[in-house]
Amino acid sequence: MNNSEFKFTPENIERINKEISKYPLKKPAVMATLYIAQEQNGYISNEVIKEVATLLEMTSEEVLGVVTFYTMYYQKPMGKNHIQVCTNVSCMLRGGYEIWNQVKEKLGIDNMNVTDDQKFSLEEVECMGSCGTAPMLAVNEDYYENLTKEKVEELINSLKNSN
Amino acid sequence: MEKIVLPDIDNIHILDVYVENGGFSAAKKAFSQSSDDIIDQVKKSGLRGRGGAAFSAGLKWSFMPKTTDKPKYLCINGDESEPGSFKDRQIFEYNPHQLIEGILITCYAIGAKIAYIYIRGEYHKWIKLMQKALDDAYAAGYVGEAMKEKFGTEFFCNIYIHKGAGAYICGEESSLMNSLEGQRGYPRVKPPFPAQNGLWGCPTTINNVETIANIPPIITKGWEWFSKIGEPKHPGTILFGVSGHVNKPGVYELPSGTLLTDIIYNYAGGVPGNKKILCVIPGGSSMPPLRGDQLEGVKMDAESLKAAGSAIGTGGIIVMDEDADLVKVLARISHFYHHESCGQCTPCREGTGWMEKILKRIIAGNGSTSDLDLLITVANQIEGNTICALGEAAAWPVRFMVTRFRDYFEARVSKEVNLQIANKVHSMRETERPLAEIKN
């Protein structure tokens, strides 16, 4: 991707228009549009922000304000497998920090870092709503719950071995 | 005991199964009555909000202006980000059509043509499940313009899902509206309240997912039936999410007023290793924690919990056994509220950080007794001095935990006493019967 410019694919423009149609204005579609942009571009660059602003008739500053308010938009490329480990109370009581330390050690990276091969990134996250199935982690959009050290070992190994 | 929100019917999440079991008959019944009648029935049923504040749902609806030339909106709060809460995702997964039917009836009652279901961004899977249910309901004519024909009525409404992106504060209703409008999710100063000045300045009602899922059975079976379930002042069933040190964590739908000890020992299988209970947070991490010796006879409903010195919140029960490190727990809770403070109000933005720092100092072994007083002072200066309730959410756990477990905390800041001794200071509740070791 040429970094000086970002354009949505025609398919994504269609998806964005569908999102806009939910609301009386264009601006409320900004959160969905940013998700689509992140999916296409891998992260939210300044060029993405400019394009989203133009498309939704907002200022770049307004879009940036939204990007920085929420934790799920990333302003730098994350790994192919973005691993999110919950360490909040309910997970903590059931070994969330042990899982966190295990994953950290296994991947050799710290919070919000990416492995050299871009395959993994790691994030310590707040409560994901898996308190009844704690401890948990998420790989991209998928939850892995009721974790044990063995399960984590197996999961990371299988992700390492997959392309 | 009959379950209202999560009935034991296989595949009730599938539209056909839902309809076979009487689904959408409540909407049909509601559309044949006046909207005032519906509001009246919900008021009389005694249904109180399940999102934390336990405010009367019918009363909230009645605040919507009758005559206005502005469009009206309904927002369903599915942000569910209070640590210890994981109940709404069960509704998205296991009974989404009852939520949809509840939304139709609510829209009819308040005169809204559009409803947004705001679901937290991390719930990718549950957003997809909810969207699938919604698509099916649209295709079958239960939602949208096709409703007119399906129900033989002039009324129709559209329902859309709005995906959040990871911000606890967006569960606060005015923050949720700002987020939905495409802005930073800053809470708004109230008044004006959403019913006067909500989404895009229009009259708006915001209800929790579980609250609205209760509406169809109230219409079908009548408000009298509902008002007799559980505690009269907070009737109905509540989805209790039990987590932490219990053998069977999970969501249990039980009548309001069920004993807290019953939920922990009988439904959630007691404490692993037959350990004693040191502390329970009864309603999600922001609610005042109870000591192990304060649990006896405590009923789980808004009024009883208030009398017991806590609050029902979202019904998320977090259990901590005798070996839990309360200082670390409180530091983790404080870290959360510091992280999630939106930064608008100085007492919350700064105070949450101070409390976290002081607690980390205590963990590092550098705390002193004056730190405990300082924690309470800071908490007291946040409480009541902020735009939204995150101030209270951050202050309550600190104030109540330090006060209620004062000897525990004193022992921790005193260099001579180790944690084991500190734990013995409190009388803790014994389990009633031996229990199996925890299984993964």
Key descriptive features of the protein:
heterodimer, A: 163 residues, alpha+beta, 7 helices, 4 strands, 45% helix, B: 440 residues, alpha/beta, 4-stranded parallel sheet
Task: Report on the architecture of this protein.
The complex is a heterodimer of chains A (163) and B (440). With 163 residues, chain A is an alpha+beta fold. Chain A is built from seven helices and four strands. Chain A has helices at 10-20, 30-41, 46-56, 60-69, 89-93, 96-107, 149-161; strands at residues 81-86, 120-125, 137-139, 142-144. In chain A, strands 2-1-3-4 form a four-stranded mixed sheet, covered by helices on one side. In chain A, helix 2 runs antiparallel to helix 3 (46-56). The model of chain A has no long low-confidence stretch (mean pLDDT 96). In chain B, the strands form two sheets. Chain B has a five-stranded mixed sheet with strand order 6-5-9-7-8, sandwiched between helices. A four-stranded parallel sheet of chain B has the order 3-2-1-4, with helices on both faces. The longest helix of chain B is centred in the last third of the chain and has 18 residues, at 346-363. Mean pLDDT of chain B is 94; it is low at 421-440. The chains are: A alpha+beta (163), B alpha/beta (440). Chains A and B meet through helix 2, helix 4 and helix 5 of A and strand 3, strand 5, strand 9 and helix 15 of B.
